[in-house]
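Exercise: predict the fold of this chain.
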Amino acid sequence: MRSIQCLTPSGLHRVAYYEWGDRGNPRVLVCVHGLGRTGRDFAFLAARLARHYRVIAPDMPGRGESDWLANPMEYQIPTYVADVVTLIARLDVETVDWVGTSMGGLIGMGLAALPENPIRRLVLNDVGPIVTAASLARIGETFGKAPRFADFAAAEAYVRTVSATFGPHSDAQWRTLTENVVRRDPDGQWRMHYDPKIALAAAPVTTDIVLWPMYDAITAPTLVLRGAQSD
């Protein structure tokens, strides 16, 4: 794990990122997680691809090992796009390939839609130009809360519930998905890794968010993976 400093109008913040493969490899794959997840979600994918790529997976601000933002209203896609531009500059490469899950796909779309952007190939996992109000409403029911758990088993039971639309997983996979997103406090209790104030930046949504103009501006070869069991 390494980190970079990024800037918003409210000041500096540190963004942590995980790295696999040969640091001298010019072929770079950036993998960006969903709203409440972390870069560690990509560890198994990175292990498979590290023979071909230098794989980079950041914890976006307010998540994982990255700093929480001083102004929670800055938890927005433009902030995240600016942060990954800084990250790519640190990597010292001209182009990257991109795998984005959910929010990570929206960040990739936002960057790939810009003129002269560095994205060479784009993979959108479980996200596209329409973000449904139904999915946002479901996420809003749980995300941004700050539950605490007496033990890891209770934390895993919670993650299994709120992540049910991820589809079927083995017990070992659920344990890994939980380990990636919980932290143990000094008092022995467990909590979710993210800043609960992230939810403050999300205005209530009653209709689908339509992003066709952004999507249509993308010129990179793009693979869209549909989450068949996801809303």
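Check your answer against the key: The CA atoms of residues 79 and 156 lie 30 Å apart.
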